[in-house]
Target: Cytochrome c oxidase accessory protein CcoG
Amino acid sequence: MSSSLEKMSIYFKKRYVMYFITTIVVFCVPFIQINGNQIFLLSFDHKQLHLLGVSFDMQELYMMPFLLILMFLFIFFITTLAGRVWCGWACPQTIFRVIYRDLIETKLLKLRKRRENKQIEPDMSLGINKLKKAIALFIWVVLSFLAASNFMWYFVPPADFFAYLKEPLEHEYLLIFLIGIAIFLIADIVWIKENFCIYMCPYSRVQSVLYDNDTIMTVYDYKRGGAVFDPKGIKMWKKPEIANAECTGCEACVKICPTHIDIRKGMQLECINCLECADACTKVMGKLGKETLISWTSPQSIDTRDKVKYFRFKTVAYLVVMLIAFVGLVFMGSGKENMLLNINRDQGSLYTIRDNKNVENAYIFLVQNTNQEAYKFYFEIENENIKIKRPLKPFKVEPGEKSKQVVVLYTDTNLSQEDKKDTAIPIKIRAYALDSKEKIEVERTSVFIYPPKEVMDKK
Ligand code: SF4
Ligand code: SF4
Model:
């Protein structure tokens, strides 16, 4: 095998291996649990975010801005570095189109004649082709429901998902989303096709502003192949008319392109970076014992014949800012508490003075068990003069549930420091789970209000 053909098989195999790995990973991730939590789950049902096996309650979503910043920075970074690498190598739209068009329609059903020519649509006037189209559609409908279910598992845990499906009428929203996503996938992959990438995908709209001359993309080597289009984008020749131009004019790169463009015209918004054209040209040029004219490199590298500049100001700057956002995320994540406690003072009177001169303050404690098991919770006051009047016993909270407790604290010690003004005594409350193997506890501060001396003297 010549070196060019070896290169072709490397591109080709890498792309399909990547599609396979991406599909397996996306499909399996919702089933992988760490400490009973998914790797990623945004559950509106349970009001929880699972991230790398850590569960965050909606009240703890202070991490969300860091996550979003990190996600956008990564998109900016990867687009500046490698253009539409996502579109060609991992986007579900591309993978699904390859499965439907190249695997089902072409390889399995022979509805399309050749994978290498995507310009020729099947002759649908033939009865046999109508039957094949119906079979292709049926297979894709089944796969669409599977893909839609897979998508839903990132929002509804698989165990809940299958349980809800047994009672579909009681979970109509799940059903609406599932059927809606499946219908979209069927329409998108069978009828909208690559028009989604060209006209509808928001990512393709924003990415061109992130490109620079060093961004890696699918590039035609006009220096070796010869310029086929003039600066206005008008095609100058079909067969080479320039001396030493290596392009044969075979247009194998054009015929194979799923978005029906001619990459020899230069970078175009429609290019999804699938590198099908590069493979096609490698095959053609390989037979002539030459290197491909279309490769995955940067325009600057084609112009100067230098190596691609991966590390430049823009990419390094994105890396630095991403690192800062990541440190912020880890810092915020490490502050996660393994139970939640909100303390509000009772909205009624500040205090109650009993006949025995005991002073009471009332509070509302909202305790949330953010763990996977039910625990009994109780609390203590870190102030020797303040004691608990109610509740006198620990209370049980189910996993993920909240418990509202009316708490009454009292003191039998005279704590007033002012004749005419109330005294606010800072108190520290330590709440904890009694029956957990690991330490589950939080600390909060509040105040205990004690009446003025003159009020107490009258009692
Ligand atoms: S496949 Fe290569 S040789 Fe053929 S037209 Fe395209 S760039 Fe030219
Ligand atoms: S020009 Fe090449 S890389 Fe771009 S979409 Fe067409 S075949 Fe894919």
Summary: The chain has a mean pLDDT of 89. The first strand starts at residue 33 and ends at 34. Residues 218, 256-259, 261, 263, 271-277 surround iron/sulfur cluster (ligand 2) (CB under 6 Å). The first helix runs from residue 3 to 28.
